[in-house]
């Protein structure tokens, strides 16, 4: 059975992220994407638009000294949505991060990401890793 095109899209975005190729990743985003980062930490909030999302991703890698990496556990997809279960790893200021995230992605008719939001299995660990809200 063939994988849904949106699942392939998501996997390709994760591969691009892993290479540090945020521009290639961003080609999958709608111009008006809304990227939600939950929690109570320095990076939480909503990022609106492709450029703001890319800046957020660069800033997260900068703050973690390039140590952030992700491993997909599973991807489910339909014509409108994708659900991704993945693990995030990183180190920052002597702290290690290893959490599982359940991610939801909504797509437009051209297969571009329009909304992204997730839920960590240990939000407290995420909040502590990134530090206090600004």
Automatic annotation (TrEMBL):
SUPFAM superfamilies given for it?
NTF2-like
Concerning Pfam families, the annotation shows:
SnoaL_2 (PF12680)
**InterPro entries named in the record:** NTF2-like_dom_sf, SnoaL-like
Q: Where is the SnoaL-like domain?
A: 10-115
Q: Enumerate the transmembrane spans.
A: none
The protein depicted here goes by the name Nuclear transport factor 2 family protein
